[in-house]
Amino acid sequence: MKKLKFLGLAAVAAGMFSLTSCLDGGGNTSSGMALGYSTLSMDAGGIVVKDDFGSVVASSTFNTQLSGGEYVAYAYSVDWDAQTSNKYTVATVSALEKYAEVYTQGSITDTTALFSNEMPVQKLVIQMYSADYAFTANNHIFMSVYHENVPSDMKTQYDFSYDSSADPVVVGGKRVYDFYLRAMKVADGDKVKEDAPFTNVYDLSQFLSRKRPVEKAAGNTAVNIRINYINEVGEDFLSSKKGQSDVISFVIPEESAS
């Protein structure tokens, strides 16, 4: 049986879990945290949480706390000797966190003016599948946006966009598509101010479905993006200091490669 791919956000990014992923007491068990998208499975007879790399996890906790369509992080333990199916893995889930979905716009949001209550972004942390490729579940990325000196319970809103008709630019020999992230404060929070991460899932399904065949035809095995954002808010958009992420790569699955 193929074991789970154990994937964890950095502890400060996830805000609730740390990755343990170990063998316990010499038995064939493991524990840690993982991410994914919930959906109904006829094979498992209930809700499972999946990713885009082959992991399918069933748990009684999913059946009581999820209805399908949610993006989650969860703490698990698995007894590999007790597994009865090669189509999914049964796990004991001890904690569960749901993340809000941010839709992606295929045209760049107006950059002639700042949003009301626009906020600077200090840093982005994107969950990685490996050193080379970003993690996805249902073609969504899990991304933490850091803001400086804010309450962790502050209400925020994010605008994520790209120009669907734009050609990629070449960065370090890679074809790269530019994305733009804008952050807005919706309401103040009550907690002590800190450098707080706000984690959501960002929808790349339409973008990846369009660009995978393009990049495959160009002889590539991945689709690459970078994310542009405001690092320091000025008097207007043009005077605001800009930041940019490193290049983020998404592997082209074999079934999407033709």
Sheet of most strands = 8 strands, mixed
Derived structural class: mainly beta
In terms of quaternary structure, the protein is: single chain
Mean pLDDT: 86
Sum up the overall morphology in one term.
globular
- Which blocks of ≥5 consecutive residues have pLDDT under 50? 1-26
Topology of this structure?
Elements: H1 11-14, E1 29-41, E2 46-50, E3 56-58, H2 60-65, E4 71-79, E5 89-90, E6 92-99, E7 101-102, E8 104-105, E9 118-119, E10 123-126, E11 140-151, E12 155-162, E13 169-171, E14 174-187, E15 193-203, H3 205-217, E16 222-232, E17 241-244, E18 248-251
Parallel strand pairs: 3-5, 7-15, 8-12, 14-16
Antiparallel strand pairs: 1-2, 1-4, 2-3, 4-6, 9-14, 10-11, 11-15, 12-14, 13-14, 16-17, 16-18
What does this molecule look like?
The structure is a single chain. The protein has 258 residues and is mainly beta. It has three helices and 18 strands. Strands 8, 9, 12, 13, 14, 16, 17 and 18 form an eight-stranded mixed sheet that branches. It has a six-stranded mixed sheet with strand order 5-3-2-1-4-6. Strand 1 and strand 2 form a beta hairpin. The longest helix is centred in the last third of the chain and has 13 residues. The protein starts with 10 loop residues before the first helix and ends in a 7-residue tail after the last strand. 30% of the residues are buried.
